[in-house]
Write a structure and sequence with these properties.
This protein is α+β, with helices and mostly antiparallel strands. It is 26% helix and 23% strand. The protein is built from seven helices and ten strands. The strands form two sheets. The chain has an eight-stranded antiparallel β-sheet. The protein has a two-stranded antiparallel ribbon with strand order 9-10. The mean pLDDT is 94.
Length: 277
């Protein structure tokens, strides 16, 4: 599932490709994709609207329309956007289509049917259940060390499980949580209320570093408009992972074999020596 850097890069690419373009017609081909809206409400609310900008909140892509509505989208595991020409046939597993005035079309494809869309009035966006309880954006000023340290001290979960809680740290998933914990030299099983202020500061800085590093790396990649999301999902950044999915390989710092454990039904990768408890 894409995490904050991938969703940010998808949003940036969509913003470059479709902002200021008018949608003359919308089709919802799988009603459950936008379960919170009726098909008529969804298609009529988007038709004849111009996309002002495309942004992101947490792991959600946000299309802002000139009609004072926002289309909130979560890609989940296999959702992706494709900008296709008029002549291009609709692909298999196509769940929504947005037809532009210039005859191009933006397609949302989702092989596993886990993605979601929701059309919301702009004024109510931050009150919708998907966004209301999200933590501050980790690369924003609101995500201060003071905030992070206070949130840690109020929890007794393991650090890894804490980092995956979107109400505590927004946008992190399995990959970047593992990478941040490794850079901070913190064991993922450490109870959050037992981490020292110094190590908490190291972890705070590592979170911001790995997210910014991945976004910067992805910004140099060539994007295929016909597979926008696929250009970023892991991409060649997989070769830069320090511990994630590296079980059995030597640690880049000490050569100890990277270990894999299961926490909260998710795989956790870490170096037993560099991240000892």
């Amino acid at each position: 599932m894409p995490e904050l850097p991938e969703v940010e890069l998808v949003a940036q690419s969509l913003d470059r490709l479709v902002s200021k373009r008018k949608i003359v017609k919308a089709e919802l081909l799988r009603e459950k994709l936008a379960a919170a809206n009726s098909p008529t409400e969804f298609t009529a609310g988007i038709a004849n609207s111009t996309i002002e900008t495309v942004g992101r909140r947490g792991k959600h892509v946000l299309f802002y329309f000139d009609s004072n509505r926002v289309l909130l989208t979560h890609l989940r595991m296999t959702g992706r956007f494709m900008l296709l020409s008029e002549e291009h046939d609709l692909p298999k597993h196509c769940h929504a289509v947005f037809y532009f005035a210039d005859k191009d079309k933006l397609v949302f494809q989702d092989q596993r049917h886990f993605g979601m869309m929701k059309l919301i009035e702009t004024a109510r966006l931050n009150e919708t259940k998907e966004l209301k309880y999200l933590a501050p954006e980790p690369l924003s000023d609101d995500f201060s060390f003071r905030y992070f340290h206070a949130a840690l001290s109020k929890s007794k979960r393991s650090l890894k499980e804490f980092l995956l809680d979107q109400t505590k740290v927004c946008g992190l998933g399995n990959i970047y949580a593992a990478e941040a914990l490794f850079l901070a030299r913190v064991n993922p099983q450490t109870p959050t209320d037992q981490i020292s202020a110094k190590r908490a500061k190291n972890l705070y800085e590592a979170i911001r570093f790995v997210l910014a590093e991945s976004i910067e790396h992805g910004s140099t990649m060539n994007v295929n408009p016909e597979n926008i999301d696929g250009s970023y999902y892991g991409g060649d950044y997989e070769g830069h992972w320090r511990v994630y999915a590296q079980a059995g390989n030597p640690c880049s710092t000490c050569q100890t074999s990277i270990a894999r454990i299961v926490q909260g039904a998710r795989s956790t990768f870490y170096c037993p020596k560099c991240q000892r408890r």
